[in-house]
Amino acid sequence: MEQQFKLQINHSKNLEALYSSIRSVKHDINNHLLCLKILAENGNTKEINKYLYTLGQTIKN
């Protein structure tokens, strides 16, 4: 019973770490979208392409 309890606690900690990572990624994506929106509103298509390329390289790595 004690081992099962420890496993449940460990599972809960793993889930919380996963949820934290998801929240972080969601926050980052929202910031990227905001930057792209501002660039688009200003008609900076070259900067948008550059930003997207850099973002793609970051994700790739």
SSE blueprint and pairings:
Blueprint lengths: L1 H40 L3 H16 L1
What's the quick description here?
With 61 residues, the protein is mainly α.
Give an overview of the whole structure.
This protein is mainly alpha-helical and 61 residues long. It has one domain. Helices cover 92% and strands 0% of the residues. The protein contains two helices and no strands. The longest helix is centred in the middle third of the chain and has 40 residues. The N and C termini lie far apart (43 Å).
Terminal CA distance: 43 Å
Q: How many structurally independent domains?
A: 1
Low-pLDDT windows of residues: none
- Report strand %: under 5%
- Element pattern in H and E: HH
Radius of gyration from CA coordinates: 19 Å
Number of strand segments = 0
Globular, elongated, flat, extended or rod-shaped: what is the shape?
A: elongated
Protein name: SpoOB alpha-helical domain-containing protein
